[in-house]
Design goal:
- By secondary structure, the protein is mostly beta strands.
- It is 0% helix and 48% strand.
- The chain has strands at 3-7, 10-13, 18-25, 34-39, 46-51, 57-59, 67-72, 77-82, 91-97, 113-114, 118-123.
- The strands form 2 sheets. Strands 2, 4, 5, 6, 9, 10 and 11 form a 7-stranded mixed β-sheet that branches. It has a 4-stranded antiparallel β-sheet with strand order 1-3-8-7, with no helix packed on it.
- The protein is globular and about 40 Å long.
- The relative contact order is 0.31.
Length: 124
Amino acid sequence: QVQLVESGGGLVQAGGSLRLSCAASGLTFSSYPMGWFRQAPGRQREFVAYIKLSGTRTYADSVKGRFTISRDNAKNMVYLQMNSLKPEDTAVYYCAAANWARATMSRVAGYDYWGQGTQVTVSS
């Protein structure tokens, strides 16, 4: 079965950096568009970034210029490099895989598989 396992979360001061990783198994990873989402307490899960098979990357306006999504198909990994972190970036971060690229890649409904999440806390 498909498994996505995130890691790399933690506590960081504002202005700092973290790199999240997501290890995928049970799927032909290179055939799946991948995304990152986040969910803060009391809020809906929101889009952060996605990367298509072509390598095309799209970001939420709130993270553009600070976050970078990348993938390593040889290692079945997707990453989220987060720089210049702000307290409002505090959330549980989830990676997700889509069976195929959809017009809804920036929405939760655009994905078929999810990881369990990793907590990111940014202190002011």
